## 1
Amino acid sequence: MRLKTFKFGIHPHDMKELSHDCKFEEMPTGEKVYIPLAQHLGTPAQAVVEVGDYVKVGTKIGEASSYVSCNVHSSVSGTVEGFVLRENAMGKRIRHVCIANDGKYEEDFLPPLENPTPAELVERCKECGLAGMGGATFPTHVKLETKTPIKALIINGSECEPYITTDYRLMIDKPQEVLQGIRYLAKAIGAPEIWIGIEANKSDAIEGMARVAEGDATIKVFGLKTKYPQGGEKQLIYALAHQKVPQGGLPSDLGYIVLNISTALAMYEACALGKPLFSRYMTVSGKGINRPANIWVRFGVPFVEIVDYLGYSDDVVKVISGGPMMGISLHSFMPVVTKGSSALLLLNEDEIRDVDPTTCINCARCASVCPMGLMPMMTDAYVLKNMIKEIKPYNPLACIECGCCAYVCPAKRPLVQSQRLAKKLIRERKL
Amino acid sequence: MSENKRFIVSSSPHVGSSLFTRRIMIHVCIALTFCLIAGVVLYGFYSLFLVLLAVFSAVGAEALYCVIAKKPLTIWDASAIVTGMIVGLNLPPTAPFYVPIVGSVFAIMLVKMLFGGLGKNFANPAATARVFLLLAWTTKMTAFINPLDYAGGKVTAGDFFSFRFIVDFADKANYVTGATPLATIKSDALAGATTTNVDLLDLLLGTTGGSIGEVCAVVILFAALYLIILKIIDWKIPVVYLASCAIFTLIFYKNGWNYILPNLLSGGILFGAVFMLTDYSSSPNTRWGAVIFAAGAGLITMLIRRYGGMNEGVSFAILLMNLLVPLIDKACRPKAFGYKKPPKAKKEKEVKA
């Protein structure tokens, strides 16, 4: 099979061997969960419960406050104890709903859908609070309600970030459910074709998905070259369709919608089981964790309970929510599991590169790996000199912050940080 | 308690490649060492002395500059060693001791440090130093000798460890070769000969007159392979440069086919292609820029070799193209993925108004 791919990019060690054989296990839930009202991109949800209310698993506790927003549901049954300000993974203090878990896990699900229409599917997706579960947490119903005619639904099974094995395990353990979810999604947007892209380092997942999709002419499973950032939306579309998403445009402008495996499974659970999105599968890995695992966990469980459950060593120097290339480093274990928590990584000294940046040697490695065709060294130099106008031709707004440039930089310059700063300053000054 | 533990918080990405600036420089030093060994075997121990002198003066000059300018000491990134080695390897094996010192100090102080140090120099320090030395001591910089004649069995320890050139080139008459391959090519081309009388095997093995590091083509090719496989340098610049030199040989010379290999294997073309054109800070940062840069250097090299007053033109070509790099980079700035030209509606309006 010819592997498809995009141009440039990097080959980091994928480190998936730590957890790729670990079957999903259920993470026990503690006495209290803290469910943030802002778990997604867009406006935070509006709380619809009050202190003292009794909620069940799946009871709506927050309602979407605008179009680009998501419903939030309780992950346990019990009493609402109050609203607390806690730090989320970004370090921002936001409102969390604190629910005392009574341990009964009484369910308050929606009725399963039988032979749903596209409108019903989108409505269900909205009702269940689905958000992109690869990490960006963009509300899924917004993607599904596209106006442009869709040529194909692209399912992102590339999972190109090192360490993370969640989508891989889902494709191995629950291929039927994932496929059913993908079919629901395709029906919702009226996509005539479904393309599933999976990186070649997950060859058994490629085979597994191809096997369950056999006989369905609308579904095509593609092998992708193992290369980072293969799972970037624009890179994936380029690899499969050989089309470039215009800068500032959306994949739907070209007639494609990209959703990932976890989202497809959430869609299946929402439609076939009536389960709102209150839990997710995630990878807990890194050499700092005693027992790397793939876990099923309810939202609102603080990371500290997860690391205490799996055990961790003292030499942990960096804790990351998400993958090592684009994830957010945490200063404590206090943040909780949310819709976007694809992984929790505890890394030790050997795994990270924590050295002071030295002067740029102009080797152009950053430009040679940038999948967006940018020149990060120029942005970095101009940002340092506060010459923001001069950065404009180097187009930092096109940066997808994948981190390839900073990964290869021999001077270990914080190039992604410079790009972010340049973006912010350009937007602020309206240049 | 887990809450009291302190973790590093930083911007993504959190992992990185293991290639650091110093490691790159050390790999280049290793590749240069291959050439140095070849030079020492060919021309004797004095060559090693010259190169070491160049390295020590380069590192010393950088340290001195840092102290004078009250800057943090930057010699630990090993880039001064690379510059020093290239300056040393560019010298003829007969250079007096002060030549490498002056060359290295010039390269480091004037070309590298005054313009901001590592990564900021506008031109290749070693190429600039070579041009400077060539203009300052033209005869000393072009006094090439035949290599030690191992086959003849006349090489004694005294010959090998001889320091007779240290102060000046005293007994010139006994050591100067009839003509270096470059001079032969030049005179043949000027005479309009359809072929040149240069032994290709001599050029490959380096058993001929030339600069310490430049003569042994086999070793330079091996060093190039080493650097390209380890991804220290990009293959594009050397390959395009050599291709460009070959093409312009074909155009400029009568019966150019016969001149391609003698030209490519002699003089500094190979050494320059691998070690000097690929200098990070003075080569373009854009993909197509690198191609234009290397092709242009090839054109200038061959123009000088064929029509210029000198036998050799590599360092001049490198220097001239170095100066064009900012312009080349600006012209070749890549378009971002998915970039579309903004509509030119405004301009049309202006025209109508």
Note: The mean pLDDT of chain A is 90.
## 2
Amino acid sequence: MPQTDYATLTPSSPPRLRVEGLGVAFRVGGREIPAVEDVGFTLATGETLALVGESGCGKSVTALALMRLLPPSARLLGGIAELSGVDLLGLPEKEMRRRRGQELAMVFQEPMTSFDPVYRLGEQLLEAIYAHEDVSYPVAYNRVEESLAAVGLPDPAGIIRRYPHELSGGMKQRAMIAMALLENPGLILCDEPTTALDVTIQAQIMELLARLRDERGLSLLFITHNLGLVAGFAHRVAVMYAGSIVEVATVEDLYSQPSHPYTIGLFASVPRLEGGKGRLVPIPGVVPPLGDFPPGCKFANRCRRVAQLCREKRPELADLGNTHAVACHFPGGDDDRTG
Amino acid sequence: MTALVEARGLVKHYPIRSGLFGREAGRVHAVDGVSLRVEKGETYALVGESGCGKSTTGRLLLKLEEPTAGEVLLDGKRVKRLRGKDNSGFRRRVQAVFQDPFSSLNPRLDVATIVEEGMLIHGLYQRPGERRERAAELLSLVGLSPDSLSRYPHEFSGGQRQRIGLARALSTGPEFIVADEAVSALDVSIQAQIINLLEELRDRLGLAYLFIAHDLAVVRHLSHRVGVMYLGVLVEEGPAEEVFTQPLHPYTEALLSAIPDPDPKAGRKRIILAGDVPRPDHPPPGCRFHTRCPRSRPACREGEPAVVKPSANRMVRCHFLVN
């Protein structure tokens, strides 16, 4: 996979996306349950930020909030999400609709269910153009064909006439990416785009995303549960746990010096291909249920370093220097990695 | 030496029916001649991508499906077609754990009923009190508190349900467990707990596993021997250590190189295979992998590759081995 040198990206230029204090809650049985709490990050032009975490940590909800596609049971508690200086969260729906597709687009996990099964792929891609622009059929058709070719699909004219079920999972995910690129948005949110695919197909899609990103200077918010996938692909990583970002760092720093006990625990839980045969070191216990978060640190009940302070006061994301930030009262060190 | 479980030339074809009279329009070659042996206390992993036939092979070994051809042996004795009451003890000695911890437990039964059902069917304990006692023992063995017995599956998380599934499998005192993607649906921090549990149980109870998985890092960690399947055929087999460090089949090599490794500095060689797996109702002639193989030559399109045994415990099907 081509590796973009993060150091050459200009940190002085304003970020393309700036998220601050994002909060989302779900209404369940008359109660409001927070799913995302005080999430913030920035994303530069051409940069890839990976949002990593386990099921229910709030990574997908964060992306849906940015797209303003939250389900009706969800409520935005606050925060800002500035894309090129404009707060997406405060825009009227009509304005937001224009920006979806043209400025930001999303690629979903399930290529099998993301297309409408009763329409040909061509019709669905054409519709995405007509929703934004008043262009003639030949112009729109050409753009669809170009976009399908750009994602490496053979015979784009043939694909246009096919129904979604006639394509394999990998081809469908390529078509999904082609659809996201139709209006040339600068920011793509990828929600587990390869999770439903086999590893050899996953490798193809990751190569494609890296190529498109580098050719077009796309900013990617890449949501995944797979730490391995991120290593060769993202520039920075934000680790989420129970609705909050607990650690954010460049890929190199995160993998060489994980500082939050949860991040350290995640690495120790994953069997390594090159690794030895010793017992894995699982993180004991389970994630506290949504809505039942303790007043202090949300990881306290599973943490090996837990102290009285952790149960009383919730740690905030604090900079360790070198753009490495961690939300822990006792960060750093990997001496408890082995047990 | 007799293996605990052996598959000899297993074939499973599913007919594709179409038209008014259900004429057979074709056949899906799900499994096409798989032979393997699992020794007592051994973990044999079957790996490959979706549709390669690894789960069907597991179902054939469990006798949940009848093979089109070939046979399954337990202790060297051929297992007859199972129908109704099973007198051979096969169902008691061979158990299964499935992938989805949500759909593999009956939501209407409490944990005690789920875990005791196998004992009841096989008449293992006479008194209900004994069964209940044994169920409580099994739960603590898999790391759940015995007061879970009166609770229902929906009250448990995915990892805990997988523990219940394991307790159910262990309830008949099996020697061989087919674990079909048993940890795939779990989050990594929970996955590690279940992997460790599987290892502990194997060492303590002397179990043998057929571990079906697509996550090769998990497979390397857990298994003694590995079989790699592609389009219904076992293309490579050998000790896990050797297959992972020195793959001989180009498909194994590509599969290993496609796994993302959580180390940005690892810089492993990547082989990205072109295209998709061909459809199993029309497997390509010759070597089944030739349509995607980076080393394909004309000979690969013609003859099906013969089995090569580079050493006593390794097997590979390829005309032109890696190095």
Note: The first strand of chain A starts at residue 17 and ends at 28.
